[in-house]
């Protein structure tokens, strides 16, 4: 058997990883050459069949847990020891890109392939995970598979409905014969089960590209909150109600959205971001003053105290605008995740590997949420970012080079070899 830690590099098959990314990108391909592969859809099923094939070729035994997570597992020589886990996701946003999440799963399979092909002994069991519904594009809450794995999924999560009014419970039940959402508690992992969790992901921002770095080391992930805000007013006919007698919730919503932008933009270090991505009028009609307007708010910051303060400012302005315009409002919290820190030890390991490659790898914060955020509840986490062109993500134009993805995978491989 070969020794676990390998001093030299260049073990990753860059062409194989990249060709698999392109092949997977054909499943759910849109007219704009993007990818639309929503969790638990027929496209997701087709993609999982293909990923299962690649996992098996890498010597992994493949199964689903009851949250719909796809798990490839290679047993260690000492199965009682905690697991070394690599993961990300293969579901997409609507009309998204080919690389988001995908490189973490396929990079993990490449690492397993190297260990298997070279008959490398390892004490710890290795798992490669494709988490279910990281994006939240199907049931609008996100990070479901990792939330479930760490024990944070609720009965309400399983009863959420998609646009076709199918519950997540039924979608899971119909997705695979191994999946029984009624038994989901059996799939919750305990803290002592997992040694570390590693994730590789495209940056989804411009820092690495602007500064000509192929990869970065993540030291923390910004906290995020997803809210649904409903503003209610008085409905009416668009042609008969004078402007000065209206209680129009659309006007209120427009003013609040502008306030969100101004409050978040005014923060001095630009670490706070607020986004309204969905807006709906009820009942909805070009000649109707709506009786209600509902919109989403995605609020993120690496500093929890500041994030909470900013949300309080937003709600204060929301309340004032509603009072000024004869409106009322409600706020529903869909998901609330605190900022998390990556393991200092794993950061040091990544940095040391970078030095062997004669690379000065930058340390950076992730503004996007990842499954690693949830996994930090039960284990130490580490993340590698890979440069993406112009920082574009969640779009068909999303792009990363074969060489950069291979570099990120090399660093992940070397870290895994130290831990297994």
Automatic annotation (TrEMBL):
Residues 220-322 form the Peptidase M20 dimerisation domain. Its cofactor is Zn(2+). Belongs to the peptidase M20 family. GO terms for molecular function: hydrolase activity, acting on carbon-nitrogen (but not peptide) bonds, in linear amidines; metal ion binding. It comes from Niallia alba. This is Hydantoinase/carbamoylase family amidase. Keywords: Hydrolase, Metal-binding, Zinc. Zn(2+) 2 binds at residues 100, 135, 394. Zn(2+) 1 binds at residues 89, 100, 201.
């Amino acid at each position: 058997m070969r020794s676990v830690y390998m001093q030299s590099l260049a073990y990753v098959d860059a062409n194989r990883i990249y060709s698999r990314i392109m092949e997977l990108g054909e499943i759910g391909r849109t007219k704009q050459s993007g990818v639309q592969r929503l969790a638990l859809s027929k496209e997701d099923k087709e993609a999982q069949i293909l990923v299962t094939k690649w996992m098996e070729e890498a010597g992994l035994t493949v199964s689903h847990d009851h949250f719909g997570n796809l798990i490839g597992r290679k047993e260690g020589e000492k199965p009682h020891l905690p697991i070394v886990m690599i993961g990300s996701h293969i579901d997409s946003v609507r009309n998204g890109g080919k690389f988001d999440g995908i490189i973490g799963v396929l990079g993990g399979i490449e690492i397993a392939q190297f260990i298997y092909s070279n008959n490398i002994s390892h004490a710890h069991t290795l798992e490669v995970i494709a988490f279910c519904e990281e994006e939240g594009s199907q049931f609008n809450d996100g990070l479901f598979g990792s939330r479930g794995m760490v024990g944070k999924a609720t009965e309400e999560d399983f009863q959420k409905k998609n646009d076709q009014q199918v519950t997540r419970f039924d979608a899971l039940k119909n997705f695979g014969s191994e999946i029984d959402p009624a038994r989901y508690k059996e799939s919750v992992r305990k803290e002592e089960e997992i040694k570390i969790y590693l994730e590789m992901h495209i940056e989804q921002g411009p820092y690495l590209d602007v500064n000509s770095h192929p990869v970065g080391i993540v030291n923390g992930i910004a906290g995020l909150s997803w809210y649904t805000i409903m503003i209610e007013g008085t409905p009416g006919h668009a042609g008969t109600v004078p402007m000065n007698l209206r209680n129009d919730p659309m006007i209120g919503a427009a003013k609040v959205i502008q306030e969100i932008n101004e409050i978040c933009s005014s923060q001095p270090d630009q670490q706070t971001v607020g986004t309204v991505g969905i807006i709906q009028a009820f009942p909805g009609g070009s000649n109707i003053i709506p009786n209600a307007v509902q919109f989403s708010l995605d609020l993120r910051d690496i500093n929890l105290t500041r994030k909470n303060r900013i949300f309080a400012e937003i709600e204060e302005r929301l309340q004032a605008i509603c009072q000024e315009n004869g409106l009322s409002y409600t706020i529903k919290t869909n998901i609330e995740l605190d900022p998390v820190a990556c393991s200092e030890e794993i950061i040091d390991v990544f940095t040391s590997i970078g030095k062997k490659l004669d690379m000065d790898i930058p340390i950076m914060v992730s503004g996007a949420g990842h499954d690693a955020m949830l996994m930090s509840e039960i284990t130490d986490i580490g993340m590698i970012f890979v440069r993406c062109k112009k920082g574009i993500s969640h779009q068909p134009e999303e792009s990363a080079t074969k060489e950069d993805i291979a570099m990120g995978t090399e660093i992940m491989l070397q870290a895994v070899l130290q831990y297994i």
